[in-house]
């Protein structure tokens, strides 16, 4: 039985490895082969193939429910009902629409929308909206999250921006939204949004600082309703009934164990309903049901059996769950605890078990966090030792009881006020700890180093007296990796995927330069959310130069965040006076040259340019005879002056000036530079229409290979190796489709 379930799970988990899904015909043949195998000695192979078929079929259904390519980028009127909890933040409302309909064509069942400056929207309302729809996508950068996979796992078939709308029907249902409004209206020491996150799973009200504090201290799980919350509440109910039975207070005619398991499960389901039964909550409830059933009837099957049964059930219900990081973290944490606490000789006192659980989970989650590219909190074991009981035994019971007693005037509000005070104390303490020990973002490891870390963690978690247990600590040293070896005379170039903006990282053997820092608006700062984390994951712990071509927000917006996050020896800019004084930017000077590790750099600047674009600071990089021109946003006039002042304009690679706008990449400029490839940085369906079709046609006419971040994700070039550009989006994954 276990062997068949294990084989089935392996087949279901193989989904993330498929570069393209098998056709219906192949799935039919595989299913027939699976049935034949089940009737022979190869029956484990049959279960594995059945898992593959079910996972691939389910994924294909999700792909078929995505927005048709013909509607991608189009604006049309649609009708649908708001579901979930709409998030209102900074003048923007984000919400999900289900069963949307339009006269223009069939729409996905689940659509995620944003309305900048939109009105108040409540769950359960029905709206008629003018929406610019897009196929689900996201920025794709080295070692970063793949948002397109996450959209697919959540079965979101389209995203969109609302242009206008009208409410057709008032709220129908929507009790969770009404409860959220009630919670946000109470006085909880300014922590009302945290209460909403803790009780309803609604983290939209938390600030960026709140999330950074939770991430730095490894306590995000405390405010994201997950298996821990469900399990702790159920465990509290179970423990109370078991304690009453032990004291002889529980009625003798009622068998305490079935009642304890039943009421624990009922409380978990009630909390799950309060949280909206999102996928993590469904997973937690299924795991809890399996554990309680095991406790009630099947303890002879061993401790790992309920974990395997829950894993099988979760993947059968939603095979796409394996594309979400939370899936791997939750099951890894539970597996670690079972491995370390079951079947060990001797008894631990409660405080010993609790303290050991924290460092056990910290070590056990290391391989998963590394594989997923997530930050690692070095203070998490110590912080969680106190924060988990603080939330679980004090805050959560008060908050749940206060919510239940809200109909009693003054009673519920008082309990929520007390819970908010406890939360405020916790956040103030976490803030101090976050400043003392920020989260560590390790560099991605090659497979052999990651395998060493896995083996080391397993050895450290093995029972006392196990052979080579001490060797585990030595093997964990594989976490610290040396800097990537870049040959002398070559430069590694990364043009990051920052949407409608520009950020280019240039690294030689011992030096790093950032050309532009990505866009920032009042809604988001990609310098902080994309550029800075990507630099750290690529092993950049300081910058020798940050060069900001000009002061437009799509190039300079993220500079302040990068400046705060990394030591920077020198900041250069085409328009230094237009940048924040805190950057201490120096003016870009034409003719300045330097050499790093055999790679040559030279600047060009036209301070008399009439526009900010024409005053862009232009950087030429040459490595072993191969040349790259980073042109910023310079346009026709600046291109003409640049050609006059450069006696040797020939280049190999061109960063497309002004994102490929019609006012740049002129015919004389293209003839004189004669590059063999162009790198375009822009956002999909951007409002400026970049790159212009005439410019793309000009590139094609001159024989250039076009590399576009909107289509191919972040672009990598080894300058001096005389190779080609690599795009992350060209790495085949079934949810991305064939390379374009």
Describe the fold and architecture.
The protein is of the alpha/beta class and 740 residues long. The protein has five domains: 2-64, no CATH class; 69-173, Nucleic acid-binding proteins (OB fold (Dihydrolipoamide Acetyltransferase, E2P)); 208-436, no CATH class; 447-479, no CATH class; 491-730, Metallo-beta-lactamase, Chain A. Helices cover 43% and strands 15% of the residues. The protein has 25 helices and 20 strands. The strands form three sheets. The protein has an eight-stranded mixed beta sheet, with no helix packed on it. Strands 12-13-14-15-16-17-18 form a seven-stranded mixed beta sheet. Strands 1-2-3-5-4 form a five-stranded mixed barrel. A hairpin with a 2-residue loop joins strand 12 (593-596) and strand 13 (599-604).
**Domains (count):** 5
**Strands side by side in the biggest sheet:** 11-10-9-8-7-6-19-20
Strand content: 15-25%
Q: State the major sheet.
A: 8 strands, mixed
Low-confidence stretches: none
CATH architecture of the largest domain: 4-Layer Sandwich
- Specify the CATH homologous superfamily of the largest domain: Ribonuclease Z/Hydroxyacylglutathione hydrolase-like
Output the number of helix runs: 25
Write down the overall geometry.
globular
Which structural class is indicated by helix and strand composition?
A: alpha/beta
Radius of gyration: 28 Å
According to DSSP, the number of beta strands is 20
């Amino acid at each position: 039985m276990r062997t068949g379930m294990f084989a089935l799970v392996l087949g279901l988990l193989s989904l993330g490895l498929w570069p393209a899904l098998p056709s219906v015909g192949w799935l039919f043949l595989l299913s027939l082969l699976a049935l034949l195998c089940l009737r022979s000695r190869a029956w484990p192979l049959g279960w594995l193939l059945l898992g593959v078929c079910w996972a691939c079929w389910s994924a294909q259904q999700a792909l078929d429910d995505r927005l048709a390519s013909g509607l991608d980028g189009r604006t049309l009127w649609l009708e649908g009902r708001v579901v979930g909890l709409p998030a209102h933040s900074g003048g923007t409302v984000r919400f999900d629409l289900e069963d949307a309909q339009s006269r223009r064509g069939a729409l996905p069942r689940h659509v995620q929308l944003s309305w900048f400056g939109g009105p108040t929207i409540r769950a359960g309302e029905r709206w008629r909206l003018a929406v610019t729809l897009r196929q689900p996508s996201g920025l794709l950068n080295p070692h970063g999250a793949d948002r397109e996979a996450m959209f697919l796992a959540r079965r979101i078939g389209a995203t969109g921006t609302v242009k206008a709308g009208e409410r057709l029907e008032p709220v129908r249902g929507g009790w969770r939204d009404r409860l959220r409004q009630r919670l946000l209206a109470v006085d909880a020491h300014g922590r009302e949004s945290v209460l909403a996150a803790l009780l309803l799973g609604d983290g939209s009200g938390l600030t960026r600082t709140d999330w950074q504090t939770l991430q730095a201290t490894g306590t995000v799980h405390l405010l994201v309703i997950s298996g821990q919350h469900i399990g702790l509440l159920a465990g509290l109910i179970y423990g109370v009934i078991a304690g009453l039975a032990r004291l002889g207070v529980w009625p003798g005619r009622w068998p305490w164990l079935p009642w304890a398991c039943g009421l624990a499960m009922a409380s978990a389901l009630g909390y799950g309903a309060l949280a909206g039964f999102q996928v993590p909550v469904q997973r937690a409830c299924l795991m809890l049901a399996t554990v309680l059933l095991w406790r009630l009837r099947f303890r002879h099957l061993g401790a790992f059996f309920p974990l395997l049964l829950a894993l099988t059930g979760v993947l059968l219900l939603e095979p796409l769950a394996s594309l979400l990081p939370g899936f791997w973290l939750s099951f890894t944490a539970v597996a670690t605890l079972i491995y370390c606490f079951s079947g060990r000789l001797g008894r631990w006192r409660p405080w010993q078990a609790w303290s050991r659980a924290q460092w056990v989970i910290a070590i056990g989650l290391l391989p998963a966090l590394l594989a997923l590219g997530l930050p690692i909190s070095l203070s998490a074991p110590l912080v969680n030792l106190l924060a988990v009981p603080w939330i679980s035994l004090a805050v959560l019971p008060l908050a749940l009881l206060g919510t239940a007693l809200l109909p009693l005037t003054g009673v519920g509000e008082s309990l929520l006020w007390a819970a908010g005070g406890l939360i405020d104390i916790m956040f103030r303490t976490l803030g101090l700890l976050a400043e003392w020990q920020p989260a560590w973002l390790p560099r991605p490891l090659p497979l052999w180093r990651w395998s060493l870390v896995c083996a080391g963690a397993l050895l450290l978690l093995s029972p006392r007296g196990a052979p080579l247990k001490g060797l585990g600590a030595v093997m964990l040293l594989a976490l610290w990796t040396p800097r990537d070896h870049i040959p002398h005379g070559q430069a590694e170039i990364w043009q990051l995927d920052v949407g409608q903006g520009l950020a280019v990282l240039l690294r030689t053997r011992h030096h790093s330069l950032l050309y532009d820092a990505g866009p920032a608006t009042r809604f988001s700062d990609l310098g902080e959310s994309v550029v800075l984390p990507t630099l750290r994951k690529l092993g950049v712990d300081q910058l020798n130069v940050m060069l900001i071509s000009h002061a437009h927000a799509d190039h300079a917006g993220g500079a302040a965040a990068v400046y705060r996050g990394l030591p920077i020896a020198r900041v250069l800019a085409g328009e230094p006076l237009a940048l924040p004084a805190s950057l201490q930017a120096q003016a870009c000077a034409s003719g300045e040259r330097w050499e790093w590790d055999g790679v040559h750099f030279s600047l060009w600047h036209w301070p008399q340019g009439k526009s900010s674009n024409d005053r862009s600071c232009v950087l030429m990089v040459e490595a072993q005879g191969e040349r790259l021109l980073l042109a910023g946003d310079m346009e026709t006039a600046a291109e003409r002056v640049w050609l006059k002042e450069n006696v040797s304009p020939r280049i190999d690679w061109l960063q497309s000036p002004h994102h490929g706008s019609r006012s740049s990449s002129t015919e004389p400029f293209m003839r004189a530079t004669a590059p063999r490839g162009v790198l375009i940085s822009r956002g999909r369906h951007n409002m400026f229409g970049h790159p212009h079709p005439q410019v793309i046609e000009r590139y094609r006419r001159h024989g250039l290979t076009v590399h576009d971040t909107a289509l191919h994700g972040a672009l990598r070039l080894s300058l001096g190796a005389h190779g080609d550009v690599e795009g992350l989006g060209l790495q085949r994954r079934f949810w991305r489709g064939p390379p374009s």
